[in-house]
Design brief:
binds pyridoxal-5'-phosphate; 4-stranded antiparallel beta sheet; 17 strands; 7-stranded mixed beta sheet; 2 domains; Aspartate Aminotransferase, domain 1; alpha/beta; Aspartate Aminotransferase, domain 2
Length: 423
């Protein structure tokens, strides 16, 4: 590479990833094949439109490429339709809102401090300025159970056009059947944002909302699904001509979504990313992916138990998926930022996070969020979790002792040598 400044930064980042342990639950390590597709000549091509209906010539390779990505995504999620063009998870959600809603319409979504995502109506987002977001949350923070009675009351009162299930910081499974019954009662579109657990769904260790009557699933492709950074929208319904304006009916959802992505809010699709998505979807269709997904969940469950033994107070008492939320303020009287910094110093990367009804400010919240998708890709198994929990406790205890932290870091670097990156 001619550009040595960038080459050096790439090498440094590879070293950081190789020598540290990635515990951010929304991150992962992609395969060499995904990286190859991402760095391919498809980045040179303009392909506005959809397969067979483009605004530029020279589409003899992009059309079959996008079609393969679409077909594989549909097969993975048991969907009638897939739009593989969203640049990321946030625009995927925005595209569904604008496909189905008029300004001022109501969306019923998960309370942010109970695990919902920014794009589910945080006041700082454009969606929150356009639409009216109402919140449901947990009934019992100890068990993580959602308050479905309150959710129904809110739905009956506010008549939302969309009921949104999904989260980025909630360690339990949702009861889609209950969501679906309430959605049907009030005639709302049932949307699931599965960005975090898409890989668990296709790996068969989490429920698929389509099996319970949901109409739309949005997801990122770069978290548990282990693909390139990107978004994906799946839906049930009939695929019509995206160039003809359809009525806003449930049957027309696929067409409404296609129009909402292009020309509604995006220009040319990123064909190199779509190539990498197609590679990742094929990988996720292989039998081994089921083993990977199951291992993520097993590792998280054991890690949660090990952390509890060390005195970490876990939100909802543990985990049923890939992520863990620990209230370090309750456990050790420190805020999440202090814990994040101490863990960073020993080479364990995770993020500070608000816990439900947090009493500390968002910039210094009470919790940390961590998960097992990336370390599972590197080959970590249940038997390695006690070592991880042990390091975490040591880092918290010795947070003010730089030399002790450096000593632990050396141990981490040595340990991870047996767990190579998939490069
Ligand atoms: C549930 C959920 N939805 C949407 C997103 C947004 O995805 P992106 O960062 O790719 O825009 C995230 C990202 O963390 C997420 O967790």
């Amino acid at each position: 590479m001619q550009d040595t400044q960038i080459a050096d930064l790439i090498a440094a980042e590879e070293k950081r990833q190789r020598e540290g342990l990635e515990l951010i639950p929304s991150e992962n390590y992609v395969s060499k094949d995904v990286l190859t597709a991402l760095g391919s000549v498809f980045t040179n091509k303009y392909s506005e439109g959809y397969p067979g209906r483009r605004y530029y010539g020279g589409q003899e390779n992009t059309d079959p490429l996008e079609q393969l990505a679409i077909d594989r995504a549909k097969q993975l999620f048991k969907a009638d339709h897939a739009n593989v063009q969203p640049h990321s998870g946030a625009p995927a959600n925005e595209a569904v809102y604008s496909a189905w809603l008029e300004p001022g319409d109501t969306v019923l979504a998960m309370e942010l401090s109970h695990g919902g995502h920014l794009t589910h109506g945080a006041p700082v987002t454009r969606s929150a300025q356009l639409y009216n977001f109402i919140r449901y949350g947990m009934k019992n923070i100890e068990t993580g159970e959602i308050d479905y009675d309150h959710l129904r009351e809110l739905a009956l009162k506010h008549k939302p056009k969309i009921i949104l299930a999904g989260f980025s910081a909630y360690p339990r499974e949702l009861d889609y059947e209950k969501f679906a019954a309430i959605g049907k009662e009030v005639g709302a579109l049932l949307m699931a944002d599965m960005a975090h657990i898409a890989g668990l769904i296709v790996g068969g260790v989490a429920k698929n909302p389509f099996d319970y009557g949901f109409h739309v699933i949005t997801t990122t492709t770069h978290k548990t699904l282990r693909g390139p950074r990107g978004g994906l929208i799946l839906s049930k319904g009939i695929v019509g001509n995206p160039l003809k304006k359809p009525e806003k009916t449930l049957e027309n959802i696929p067409t409404l979504i296609d129009r909402s992505i292009f020309p509604g809010m995006q220009g040319g699709p990123h064909m190199h990313v779509i190539a990498a998505k197609a590679v990742a979807f094929r990988e996720a269709l292989q039998p081994e992916f089921k083993g990977y997904a199951a291992q993520i969940v097993k590792n998280a469950a054991v890690l949660a138990e090990e952390l509890k033994k060390h005195g970490f107070n876990l939100v909802t008492g543990g985990t049923s998926n890939h992520l863990i939320l620990a209230d370090v303020y309750k456990s050790f009287g420190i805020d999440g930022g202090v814990a994040e910094t101490a863990l960073d110093a020993i080479g364990l990367t995770l993020n500070k996070n608000a816990v439900a009804d947090d009493t500390l400010p968002p910039f210094r919240p009470s919790g940390i969020r961590l998960g097992t998708p990336a370390i599972t890709t590197r080959g970590f198994k249940e038997e390695h979790m006690s070592q991880l929990a042990d390091w975490m406790k040591q880092a918290v205890d010795k947070r003010d002792d730089e030399r002790a932290l450096q000593e632990i870091r050396k141990q981490v670097v040595e340990f991870v040598k047996s767990f190579p990156l998939p490069l």
